[in-house]
Amino acid sequence: MNKLIKDAFTLLSFAFLATAASTAQEQNGVTVKHLGVNNTLIEVNGQGKYLCIPVQESAEEATVNVLIDGKLERTLNIRLATSKVDYTVPLDITEYNGKNLLLNVITKQSRATVREAKGDACWKNFTVSDTFDVTNREKYRPAYHHTPLYGWMNDPNGMVYKDGVWHLCYQWNPFGSKWQNLSWGRSTSRDLIHWEHQGAVLEPDGLGMIFSGSSAIDSTNSAGFGANSIVAMYTSAAASQIQSLAYSTDGGNTFTTYPANPVLTLESEARDPNMFWNNESKQWTLVLANALEKEMLIFTSPNMKQWTLQSSFGKGIGAQDGVWECPDLFQLNVSNTGEKKWVLLCNINPGGIQGGSATQYFIGEFDGKTFKADTDANGNIPTKWMDYGKDHYATVSWSDAPDKRRTVIGWMSNWQYAAEIPTMQFRSANTLPRDLSLFRYSDGQYYLASAPSPEMLNLRDHSINKSTRFSVGKKVKTFSLPTKNDGICEIVMDLDTRRSSKVTMTLTNKQQEKVIMTYDAQNAQLSFDRTQSGLVNFSQDFPSVTVNPTYSENGKVSLRIFIDRSSIEVFEKEGRFVQTNLVFPTSPYTTLSLQSNGGMARVSNFKVYSLKY
Ligand code: FRU
Q: Are 592 and 478 in contact (CB under 8 A)?
């Protein structure tokens, strides 16, 4: 190379280097350095509580390695924005203050050039900030149902009642509104209605993500973590699914993972440990879903750490068209006979009564080791369903609920479309809490009743309608729904259809979107039609007409209907049936119309309550 060319080349290289160096963008407290088409470094140098990370739901997940002083602290999977920012998610960086915080980001989308990769929307939108915006401005965020402050939520987990506080943990992705980075988020409530967001208490570790599980209070210090500690048992999920413990000695605010985890391993995919102290057998008892085998395994232990397999239940029994998940086992009184029976909840997905996920249950006897389900008159074990709507899953109960109550809560969605529902900064709510009891029906069978927890009565403000008793026939009678707070309300009524055959209750809004509920007395059924309820086309599995048996004998039924922006729960007053369904009306429903076919129906105790929240 002659000198001139060489000099020119050196000059050019410097120029090139200068350009490359200048492409490191510094803004909003971060410096972005592109290393190639799929690799970028984000140096965090600004001061603030949060690094706000820009997300686009339709983007592919990027691997975000968080390095503190060069050491890998954690790895997150985040849908970093490519063409537009849907919302940001906060990474709390307060504990890294004064240390070097670097994100080593590996993206997956195919990019021809670094220049193209640089164009992705996320890079300009990473921001260090002292605040994170969780203003509730999404119209489909329910008012009086529990929702995560932001991010994806599925199953309720680790529920325990202690010292006047209802603890509700849940499967949570704090880094996006789709399923990923499963952690246990936590909320607390003193009245089962108002919930306070407490953040993550268990986050993915070397054994994997934190899948579902339960918590119990170890009053005798049998595990050695301290008397009255809250002990959580959950599934560590990575290449395999194994069971781990964590404990809290500060009333559930923080959890420490047990250093000798896992405490239980099997050679198959087993998950969602549900652990309780059995006062009859004086043993810790654990029900674990042997998911792919579609059975529940029952173990016992003196100390929560060493578990002995006692039995299994479920092979070939009940609904079998999906994996078995999220079990629960408890004893209940039968309201109308005074007997006691054991109930085993076996959530199943898919293969639920309305397609997709649902909660089936079995009633029988449990001797401390083996669960034996009751049979019907033909000697078969019947499949029973806890809720006949489409959006009720992963329901389990609180440990140590006061006054011997058996209070449960479910995830108000369905795996068929949970990730597609039209919300953004948060995704999914819980059902209303319900108190369980058993009743014996005229067919000789026992059934589970799920009534709204008594606390829900405290939501009632005043009833906005004048007439509470009337008859209804072919001519439609229309009533206004509250306008306050997007029409959130509870509607109650007693229907007497001894002189009619069907009563139709229709909720309608300005756009003529509607939900049609029909009580068919002859067939003792209630149907819920949401095919024209509003936005329905985001999934082919969403538009549906769901039907439940009413377990009513004489053409009479008493209803409590709860409406909360994007959900409707229809309960028989005592909980003999319930249907939980999501709806996404373009604007709130404003009227309820009643009509009867085949004669006059009597309506009494009719009230439309606006709710205080
Ligand atoms: C049920 C479930 C559980 C699992 C969790 C993972 O919805 O699949 O079996 O632990 O969700 O998020």
A: yes
pLDDT at 136: 66
Phi-psi sector, 575: left (phi>0), alpha (psi -120 to 50), beta: left
Closest of 129, 155, 146 to residue 194, by C-alpha = 146
Ligand 1, from 77, 153, 154, 157: best to mutate by most atoms within 8 Å of Cβ?
154
> What is the distance, to the nearest Å, from the Cα of residue 464 to the centroid of all Cα atoms in its chain?
32
Residue having the nearest C-alpha atom to atom 9 of ligand 1: 325
Pairwise CA distance, residues 115 & 111, whole Å: 9
Tokens linked to 333: 């009184």
Are 319 and 393 in contact by the 8 Å Cβ rule? The answer is: no
Contacts for 110 with CB less than 8 Å, ≥ 6 apart: none
* Separation of alpha carbons 339 and 371, rounded Å: 17
Query: Is 392 near ligand 1, meaning CB less than 6 Å away?
Result: no
Q: Which residues contact 309 (CB under 8 A, 6 or more apart)?
A: 297, 298, 299
Strand spans (E) along 565-600 = 567-572, 578-582, 591-597
Cα gap 143→210, rounded to integer Å: 28
Whether 370 and 311 have beta carbons less than 8 Å apart is answered as yes
What are the residues facing 597 on neighbouring strands? 502
CA angle 453, 161, 144 (to 5 degrees): 40
Instruction: From the CA of 415, give the closest atom in ligand 1.
Output: 7
Rounded to an integer, what distance in angstroms lies between the CA atom of residue 538 and that of residue 511? 18
For 381-399, what is each residue's pLDDT tens digit?
Answer: 999 999 999 999 999 999 9
Distance CA 41, CA 458 (A): 52
Residue-wise pLDDT for 500-518, tens only, equals 889 999 999 999 999 999 9
Model confidence at 83: pLDDT above 60: yes
Q: Is 152 in the pocket of ligand 1 (CB under 6 A)?
A: no
Query: Which residue from 415, 293, 297, 409 is spatially nearest to 352, judged by alpha carbons?
Result: 415
46, HSE (Cβ side, Cα atoms, 13 Å): 18
How far, in Å, are 158, 242, 573 from residue 209 at the CA level? 15, 11, 40
Tell me, in angstroms, the distance from the centre of ligand 1 to residue 155's CA.
7
Of residues 69, 86, 133, 155, which has the active-site annotation? Answer: 155
∠ CA 453-458-464, rounded to 5°: 115
Is 486 assigned a catalytic role? no
Closest CA to 188 of 160, 211, 213: 160
